[in-house]
Amino acid sequence: MKYTYYGHSCFEFDFNGTKVLLDPFVTYNPLAKSLKAEDLSPDYIFLTHGHEDHVADLVTAQKSKDAVVVSIVETAAWVRKQGIAKDKVIEFNLGGTVHLPFGKVKMVFAAHSNSTPDGQYGGFPVGYVFFVDGKTIYVSGDTALTMEMKLLERFNIDYAFLPIGGHYTMDAEDAVIAAQFVKCQNIIGTHFDSFPPIKIDHDATEKLFSEADLTLTLPEIGETYSL
């Protein structure tokens, strides 16, 4: 298994040939100018919430391979309004689990806000826990540090994708605590550097995680990494 980072909170898992894209946002990311949304070709698209910096390229990415879009109920209603067929949208809710050909996915709590680009209520923001081929991967989505994360330690998480940019989400210091709450050693940073308010000091951030005996990856845009 592997993942490719497309910047901000957009990345794509390759689960043994099944491509699972998270929060498609490429076109308007000033750091991802070498990438094109038209080149994304996922089988599934998971949305953590409806803010534009997580859904701006949804329609373009979905059309490429007629992907199935997965999200919380209210965000799913907005997805269908974008012209995506009902049978290509899976809606579920906090605490729920969906079983898909590549594995199962549980929807979990995130502490953030959620509206769609047209200003409508998008339901709760969420995270996901993926269970695939004996590995467990936590994608927190945009979130603050929350005690709810302690409930996830029972899943024996192998990799956690956590926001570290601060301002709109938790910062690196809180992400260290989040990693300790979920008891995960391997952290992949998301939601950093894309805009001035979330620009980070890479050296200081890496030192912070190292001192906490955590392995941090600050992925490079366009690069592919093994899991």
Task: Describe the protein.
- The protein is an alpha/beta fold and 227 residues long.
- It has one domain (2-226): Ribonuclease Z/Hydroxyacylglutathione hydrolase-like (Metallo-beta-lactamase, Chain A), CATH 3.60.15.
- The chain is 19% helix and 29% strand.
- A seven-stranded mixed beta sheet has the order 6-5-4-3-2-1-14, covered by helices on one side.
- The longest helix is centred in the last third of the chain and has 11 residues, at 172-182.
Q: How many structural domains are formed by the residues?
A: 1
Terminus-to-terminus distance: 5 Å
**Which quaternary structure do these chains form?**
single chain
| Gyration radius, rounded | 16 Å
- CATH structural fold name: Metallo-beta-lactamase, Chain A
Strand order of the largest sheet: 6-5-4-3-2-1-14
Helix/strand order: EEEEHHEHEEEEEEHEHEE
Report on the biggest sheet: 7 strands, mixed
Count the helices. How many?
A: 5
Percentage of residues in strands? 25-35%
Give the uncertain stretches in residue-range form. none
Which structural class do the helices and strands define? alpha/beta
Query: CATH H-level name... which superfamily?
Result: Ribonuclease Z/Hydroxyacylglutathione hydrolase-like
Specify the overall morphology. globular
> How many β-strands, per DSSP?
14
